[in-house]
Amino acid sequence: MTKGIWLPSHTKSVAWLALLGILALTALAAEPVFAHAVAQGDKGYIQEISGVHLLPFVYLGAKHMVTGYDHILFLLGVVFFLYRLQHVALYVTLFAVGHSTTMLLGVYFNIGINSYIIDAIIGLSVVYKALDNLGAYQRWFGFQPDPKAATFIFGLFHGFGLSTKIIEYNISSDGLVPNLLAFNVGVEIGQLLALSAILIVMGYWRRTVGFFKHAYSANVVMMSAGFILMGYQIAGYYVSQGS
Predict the structure, then answer these.
(1) Between 69-79 and 85-108, two packed helices, what is the crossing angle to 10 degrees?
(2) What angle (nearest 5°) sits at the alpha carbon of residue 134, between those of residues 128 and 136?
(3) Terminus-to-terminus CA distance in the chain, angstroms?
(4) Is 35 a member of any domain?
(5) pLDDT digits (tens, 9 = 90+) for 46-70
(6) How many structural domains comprise the chain?
(7) Domain contains 111
């Protein structure tokens, strides 16, 4: 049996800090039931205004992404083993294109999906990516699904998660397109901010001796977080059907 690598105390702290960060993001799910729920104050603002309001919608989009624990968990999984910036840019672009497409078209054409179902699928995306990082599909099925296609497809579902909530809030048709575009710009700004923070932490962690030792545990925690998100939504769906 191979002996574990002894890590200095500060290195252990970095690894466990990363794990605790993932757990903290997951714990946020205890407040809103929906991963894509909009804060009550923002909800009232969306419902009341009409006309073009670009800056407020940019702010709302950025706020949604930075506080969207489901997006952050999925992005963390996507970039976990990406070391080159061009690869990070490619995958994040695929996710952004998918997310933007369904968010914009979903609201514009009034295409909504049950919030519990779509958010359960988003939780599944986190589980899928964590298992991918663990090499589960190669061991279980003997082949590796295309990670680029998976990132894009799950990006489409993430976009539907938000469009479904915006539709429920009956956003005004007056200035709809400019406001949606502004919101999407904000989402991309928020995504860049969240991604920058993730890459800074990951860059430091990867230089430590124990990265590969703790990478397995981190992805198991991430997979567990995805199952927790799925559990919330599936339970909520059945409760809503019975009420």
Answers:
(1) 150
(2) 70
(3) 54
(4) no
(5) 778 889 999 999 999 998 888 888 8
(6) 1
(7) yes
Q: Where do we find the tokens 């989402």?
A: 187
Alpha helices per DSSP H over the chain: 9-27, 40-48, 54-67, 69-79, 85-108, 115-133, 136-141, 147-168, 176-206, 211-242
- What is the SS3 assignment for 114? coil
- Whether residue 185 lies inside any domain: the answer is yes
CA 122/CA 103 separation, integer angstroms: 14
- Yes or no: say if 68 and 36 are a contact pair by the CB < 8 Å rule: yes
Give the whole-angstrom CA distance, residue 87 versus residue 17. Answer: 25
Token digits for 128?
């899928």
How far apart CA 4 and CA 243 sit, in angstroms, is 52
Residue with tokens 């909530």: 165
Q: Which tokens in the block code for residue 195?
A: 């991604």
pTM summary value: 0.83
Would you say residue 12 lies in a domain? no
* Identity of the residue numbered 113: I
